[in-house]
Each structure stands twice: as structure tokens, then as C-alpha cells.
Amino acid sequence: MVRPRNVGRYQAPKEVPDWEQEEFESRTDIKKAADAVKNLGIQISELTVSEIYSFNLPAEFLDAVLLLKKMGKGPALKRQKSFIGKYLRKNELLIIQIKERLQQIEQREQQRNAHFHRLEIWRDRLVEEGDSGLNEFLTDYPQADRALLRQLVRNANKEVSENKPPKSSRAMFKYLKIVS
Known about the structure:
Layout: H1 18-21, H2 27-45, H3 49-53, H4 59-70, H5 75-90, H6 92-129, H7 131-140, H8 146-161, H9 167-179
């Protein structure tokens, strides 16, 4: 007669992390939640090293993330990702901290992109409208050099008419970044 392994043995109840206490309808939902936590760790490893250090992560987790960042393809990569996911699932507070920091980074990226978009619009307006656009730009940014911008606008229009690469438009964009 074969006895089941754990029959008659006392097992202490395990602490169940918050993410496991949620009500899931199926095993698939549980796996999706675990994958979401693992993907959070993978998302960190895709950042630059200086950004990773700015998270102030525990030493063991930091080492795991930096190792994942260095790894190439292969089965070890999958094991490392699983290790990171397991570590995160055990540390609910770390998940919250990481989510908040990633949200801050994303907001900063959105603000920078919006700023660049505004500068691109100004550059295009300056090229299209000429002096009227330049006057309007100078009311918003009085510290800008009128003569330099006029020269860049003239050169950009000349490049457009001669089908040359937009060297002056790029230079104007760089200058607008400095001024604004």
C-alpha cells in the first residue's frame, strides 16, 4: 500500500502575500497576475543603470536586475526573470515602490516629449511664417537672439527651396532647446 507523502505530517500555515489573497476566478488569472509582477521586474532591467540605481532597491534584488540586464538569450535568462518575479511577489512594498517610481519616470518622459513637440511646432512656424512668427516667439522667449534666429530661418527656407538636407532646421531646433 502506498501512502501519500504529507499525510500525518503537520505543516505550518504559510503566509499568503496580498497579491495571492485577491480573488481569482481561474488559474489563468493567477498566472497573469504573477506574469504582471515579473514584467515589472523586467521593465526595470530595461532602464539605464543610473535609473536602476535611483530606485534604491535592496542589494539582492538590485544584483538580480543588473545581472538580467547583462544577460543574453538562453534558458538562464528565463530563470533569472522567474527569480525576479518570485522575489517581487514576496515583497509587496517593493512592488508599490517600483510602480510609483516607474510612474514618475513615465510622467517625466511625457513632459519632455510634450516640450519637444512644442519646440518642433515653433520651428515649423518660424520657417513658414518668417518675421511674424519670429516676433511672436520673441514675446514668449525674449532672451532669444533675433539675428541668429532670422539667419537660421533664412537658411532653412533656402534649404527647402533647393531640396537640401535640413541642416539649418536642426540647428534651429537645438537653439530653441537651449533658449526655452
